[in-house]
Amino acid sequence: MSTAQASADVAVIGGGIVGLAAARAVLQREPTLSLVVLEKEERLACHQSGRNSGVVHAGVYYAPGSLKARFCTAGRAALAAYTAERHLPYVECGKVVVALRDAEIPRLEELYRRSCANGVPDVRLIDADELRRIEPTARGVAALHSPRTAITDFPAIARSFADDIRAAGGRIMTAFPVQHIEQRQDTVVLTGRNGDRVVAGRVLICAGLYGDRLAVMAGDAPEPRIVPFRGDYYRLTPEWRTRVRGLIYPVPDPGLPFLGVHITPTVGGELLVGPNAVLAMAREGYRARTVRPDEVLDAIGWPGFLRFARRYWRVGCAEMWRAVSRRRFAADVAAYLPGITARDLIRARAGVRAQAMDAAGRLVDDFIVRRVGKVVAVRNAPSPAATSSIPIGEELARLLLSTDDVPAVESQ
Ligand SMILES: Cc1cc2nc3c(=O)[nH]c(=O)nc-3n(C[C@H](O)[C@H](O)[C@H](O)COP(=O)(O)OP(=O)(O)OC[C@H]3O[C@@H](n4cnc5c(N)ncnc54)[C@H](O)[C@@H]3O)c2cc1C
After folding, report:
1. Nearest 5 degrees, angle CA 56-CA 142-CA 133?
2. Do 274 and 395 sit in the same domain of this protein?
3. Res 82: pLDDT
4. Where do the FAD dependent oxidoreductase domain residues begin and end (predicted)?
5. CA 396, CA 67: separation in Å to the nearest integer?
6. 312/173 same-domain check
7. How far is the CA of 48 from the centre of ligand 1 (A)?
8. Structural domain count of the chain
């Protein structure tokens, strides 16, 4: 068996949408640099970037001034332009965030305030009658309407970024799981399987669900850790497809970074509902029965997770019940779309979120990037990182190529 040996000015670990966007941005900034992307799977973008809702967010939810808010607004505009230029799918189907009862209206108003502060285009608060005109099948007492929220095909965008990287002279090596990182005086040595080795001048880690493990390999602190939360999706039966025009979301729980089970048309013509949020039994555990005992113990044996579990055990139990009961799932969706029953739901593909958690058991809401020697490590890139991939990639490229030693972006 032959071993791969390569050297490059820059190595990017992780062939998801964030790693590919960053690699592309590095070559746009410095076209003469040699660059390699190392991806452990045979294919690119097959974890979070290929298993999400496909929504191009407009910036409704995020705390004004946060990195999420900044990058989301810029990211939506950049993706709209990029997909138009490359003839990739992008449909501005719009979105309603629906309040089911009066008690949710203050939270809806807060979302409206945030939307305005974040520059979400054309966003409005609407009453029940207008909601019916926009989404005739949906029910609620009021809603927030964001007509510029869109849907797209993130794996197709990631593949297009990969084409840009190759066209600019970069190399993409798949089936290269980085297992060891050694920082030397002038270089970083990345070792894969069977003695495969890449020696690079600078390294960027964008490893999603394994981002914390690789950052620790590079010498960074163990916290925040990644705790994997599985999100199950169902497909609605074809007769529902004509009854829904755009995205329908609940008012989210302000204490959680998840947006709640939503109804999502896809650019492929399907109608999905999901995702819920349950602790996954493996970092890439897309089925309830996929269990990796080392990864489960790593999560639940850690004091940070125990603190989190103590605080959220009620929500956790409700989510687990919804994960095993299709009837419960359907009843929750029927609150927004009356008439849906368990018979209308067909199990679809699940995704797992890489959710960073600190030692106090708090879910980290914003993007986190750190610098350790010659390595820049993305420690948290949750939703809407796919929407924001172009400006995040540009910022990561700037940090990687800058010579200042100031710790990189750390905003929570
Ligand atoms: C259920 C769900 C729904 C979501 N919905 C949306 C949405 O609608 N809109 C939105 O904007 N965002 C959404 N997100 C968030 C978005 O998908 C992610 O923030 C984004 O895809 C993160 O990209 P990434 O490149 O950081 O991670 P990933 O796509 O997970 O890529 C990381 C890559 O690193 C590779 N890797 C890991 N370890 C190694 C190693 N040792 N060596 C080499 N390679 C390695 C992995 O194989 C993987 O390909 C959602 C996420 C989930 C899970």
Report:
1. 75
2. no
3. 98
4. 9-399
5. 13
6. no
7. 3
8. 2
Tell me which residue range forms the domain holding 355: 232-361
Nearby residues of 150 by Cβ (< 8 Å), 6 or more positions away:
55, 56, 76, 80, 90, 91, 92, 93
In a domain, 215, yes or no: yes
Interval between CA 367 and ligand 1 midpoint (Å): 13
- CB within 6 Å of ligand 1 — which residues? 13-19, 38-41, 45, 47-49, 51-55, 57, 177-178, 206-210, 214, 231, 275, 351-353, 381-387
Q: 305 φ, ψ to 5°?
A: -70, -40
Residue 176 and residue 238 share a domain = no
* pLDDT tens per residue across span 256-265: 767 778 999 9
Q: What is the pLDDT of residues 125-155, one digit of tens each?
A: 999 999 999 999 999 999 999 999 999 999 9
Which is the closest atom of ligand 1 to the Cα of 20? Answer: 25
Buried b / exposed e over 186-208, threshold 16 CB at 10 Å, is ebbebbbeeebebbbebbbbbbb
Pair (28, 175) in one structural domain:
yes
| pLDDT tens profile 73-114 | 999 999 999 999 999 999 999 999 999 999 999 999 999 999
Q: What is the pLDDT of residue 311?
A: 84
